[in-house]
Amino acid sequence: MIIDIHGHYTTAPKALETWRNRQVAAIGSPSEQPKVAELNISDDELRESIEQNQLRLMRERGLDLTIFSPRASFMAHHVGDFAVSSTWAAVCNALCHRVHQLFPDHFVPAAMLPQSPGVDIATCIPELVRCVEEYGSVAINLNPDPSGGHWTSPPLSDRYWYPIYEKMVEYDIPAMIHVSTSCNACFHTTGAHYLNADTTAFMQCLTSDLFRAFPTLRFVIPHGGGAVPYHWGRFRGLAQELKKPLLKDHLLNNVFFDTCVYHQPGIDLLTGVIPVDNILFASEMIGAVRGIDPETGHHYDDTKRYIDASSLDAGARHKIYEGNARRVYPRLDAQLKAKGL
Amino acid sequence: MIIDIHGHYTTAPKALETWRNRQVAAIGSPSEQPKVAELNISDDELRESIEQNQLRLMRERGLDLTIFSPRASFMAHHVGDFAVSSTWAAVCNALCHRVHQLFPDHFVPAAMLPQSPGVDIATCIPELVRCVEEYGSVAINLNPDPSGGHWTSPPLSDRYWYPIYEKMVEYDIPAMIHVSTSCNACFHTTGAHYLNADTTAFMQCLTSDLFRAFPTLRFVIPHGGGAVPYHWGRFRGLAQELKKPLLKDHLLNNVFFDTCVYHQPGIDLLTGVIPVDNILFASEMIGAVRGIDPETGHHYDDTKRYIDASSLDAGARHKIYEGNARRVYPRLDAQLKAKGL
User: B263 and chain A: CB distance < 8 Å anywhere?
Assistant: First the structure.
């Protein structure tokens, strides 16, 4: 089985964006806020948006199942207050849940949280609980910078985040550390902010002893870990300067990287440098880079081709495609086992 | 000849830091500001600080010449106002000039600018002029985020920066795009902020048409280009989405990467992905990562070993070690030629 652990609902019917635009336009005017019930998207519309996009490409590429969460760039936790984020997260998670119900063999949800800058992270727990218990979510996306490129929240090692970690540990679910759109003109969202956040989050883990406090906490760093594997020697050396244990002991029981790296040399570096047990297959499809690479004639984000063309043996490939995902996402494993898979 | 284009004076005598601490302590009390003349460092002290550190390692590693600028993390452009930055830049540049005079065959200066957040960049021109005309500086370090991790300046493509670009073009000098210390708790200085800035700067160039406005402007992106070469497919794909030309035409006449990547797989990726004409040898020694890699028994930052162990042919290696530096830093080339080199 091939599991893509990083897919977002980037192709939701237009009505979702229209509803969101109304919600944002009404910020500051509670009476004008659109009602959740005013968002009408039929099952057929959902089916079409998936079948013609993600599912079509999954079938073409031979992917079986995607861990599917709301569109990352649309989370926009910096917009409005907690009430705005809360309603928006509920709407987005409900849609991913419906996609899961329509395509139970192909999409398993991960939850977006109703984060809001400066607001107690514990306020996100009810939505997390709903997603895990009612929707079958197997993971969350955790935004280390809900300000959208101003980085006003404390580092991930700070006690600010502990309430959500306690709930993650209780449910045994991992978090993908994933920022949203940048509202800082310095940072292009998918070309800078996403990759920077990946590197930043990893370094926040490296400089701290977070995983001593939470030995079973698990973070997935997306986009191939940002700059981390390319600079693995730098990070090993920095850990040494900081008198931390070797990275394999300090971080690699808890930190995992996905394979959203859109060319062969990048995947070869990732799989050559990072232990195979810490690499999870993903493509973030349909996402930031939708085109066809003129150098290969294939989609940039068809990351399965790079894994297949790498020098990994069958055992390593199985771990990356399936085994590691079942280990890092035990609730996914349980769902699959319940189906006899 | 082997030219290291990225060295900072990280080993300056303690008196420099003491003077700086006095300067910072007196911010807001102009009458208590230490005088520049109160900083007394003898030639012998300078000699010792270099001979026992950078020059010793250069000799051990077989490096001939370093382009040498003030300590990047100490620039701290966010501290104080323009007057503070101006005096501090003048002090630091004067020291690098003295190192150049003491070791003219081994150190050639690059200038730190007296940037200050929100202040017109044209205020940096007098120091730039002094450095180029009096000190023989062959480049500048340009800080894209003088706020120190809050990213409050406009992107490098903004007209805000044009006055400095015009002067760079006039003098035909490149800028290394290099941030300073992070005062944002989210960003570890050398493990996150530096690499993020590299990626951010590259993406600012990619999304803009800066090099159409300044066809001869040249940027060196340090630390192996941050996350860029590892994600070269992503950046090619993003350029395509944005209807920009191929990166080789859009950016690679103007953007260059150094080799401050501290392990063999990273250097192999860099040299495999980026055209050899765009790679400049550097180690940023003595810098963030000073230890010995237990996996190799050699210093992490002994980047010459990685270049030597790569599959590059002699012609490519010559470009990386010397040829490209002479082309990207024409004032260095002129100085070398004047010596018959």
Answer: yes
